[in-house]
Amino acid sequence: MTAASDSRRGALLVAVLLSALLFWVPLPFGSVVVWSHAVLQCAAFLLVAIAALVLPRESLPRRALVPAGAVAAIAGLALLQSARWPGGIVRALSPEHARLQEQAAAALTAAGGPEAVATALSLAPDASRSAALTWLAVAACAGVAAAVGRHRRERRVLLAGLVGAALLQVGLGTAALATRSASIWGVTVAGDASRLRGTFVNADHLAYLLEAALAIAFAWGWWATGRARWEEAPERRILLVAPPALLWVTLFVAVAFTGSRAGLVAALTAALAQGLAVAAQRRRWRLGVSGLLAGAVGLGAVAAVSVQQGLGRWLATSPYELSWNDRTVVYALCVQLWQRFPLLGSGLATFRDAFPAVQPADLAGSYWHAHNDWAELVVTTGVAGLGVVAVAAVITVRGLATALRAGRRSEDRAAALAALGVVASVAVHSCLDFGLSMPANAVTLVSILAAALAVPVPPPTAAPAGQVRDQGPAGSSA
Questions:
Q1: Domain range spanning residue 342?
Q2: Burial annotation 41-52 (CB, 10 A radius, 16+ → b, else e)
Q3: What is the total count of domains within the chain?
Q4: Around Cβ 217, how many Cβ atoms within 10 Å?
Q5: What are the pLDDT digits (tens) for 8-53?
Q6: By CB neighbour count within 10 A (0-12 exposed, 13-18 middle, 19+ buried), where does 447 fall?
Q7: Any domain includes 470
Q8: Could you give the CA distance from residue 162 to residue 473 in angstroms, rounded to a whole number?
Q9: Per the domain annotation, does 476 fall within a domain?
Q10: Alpha-carbon distance 147 to 41, whole Å?
């Protein structure tokens, strides 16, 4: 009994520490500054050590380790890219890297400099190596989330930390928005001060974090609605349903106030996807309109607060807008860039080093990112990186669908529903932005997925969750 109690206390301790880290990572500008990378790395690896010491040796479903494994594989690829390789291997795997390195060596020789040039599979080995360490830290967080996400108490702690982080960003952003402050933590930063951005320099990147919390709120509302059916007193039903409903509306309005057009589309897509997932799980297709109704309520709330602030950028969108035209050009150029480094990419975190090679003179500005996570992934990691992410995505979605259909408890199924909403929103938003390059958003994403994939699912021979439900107050089948 004592050993079991110690194990549970240890699991709770690890969950609290991980939740605190998830709460903290958005605060230092989304953790994009150099020192915040170091803090994230140290904290994540320390968490792994603590988890190894105090957590019980429980078997986890293999699907729960997929997010951590995929991120670790990308980090491993980056380490391989940054390593020194014999010239023959570089020429065989990436002829363009070899050509550029030979060209650089010839230029140095002509200038009287040293002839030695690192023969690597990355245009900037140091940048790829540094990025690999950060992504290994992200993978470590996902592994810890999988270890503690199996139990609902620890999973509640994680999700509460994520929602708390989102609400803190809304509060800080609202205070800055009221004064049109151009500074974050006393530092003047670029960007539009008329948009809700919290502690992120780019308001679009805050939208990623809010969308994740929004999906959690939707799933909480679904779970609370099911529980409220067992309550006879109307006031108890209201107490169950009102908090998640209010949270969802608040977060939806906040997403709209970021001015992120892609974020608003992603939030609506997530609500629709979650509504359809609930309908498929219950095999009652009329429930599919719940996502549409939620979206309509959210848009109505935005209009009631401020149409101009919440929907102004969306309503002013034009197909001839300069920024959109530039992005379509960049996306086309990304295809050309990928063709130069098709197998292994130019090197993780080297987009800004690679893009000038294809950037035309009439495309002004410096592009550090592709404004499309998927395009940047292909450019910097090639077919190898895209294959890893694609396989992981398929396994993850199938695992979440299984957990939603057959999870032991309604709360377990709600966790899967939340993660499915996060997947839908990120898949859409990443087509038009680079929010996953923010460590805060990446850690949030993989932690939610890993925790949801770890929920207990009965073996196929057991009765599915649709037939044996959680017991209601009177002991009858829910």
A1: 15-83+120-180+189-453
A2: bebbeebbebbe
A3: 1
A4: 26
A5: 788 899 999 999 999 999 999 999 999 999 999 999 999 999 999 9
A6: buried
A7: no
A8: 30
A9: no
A10: 19
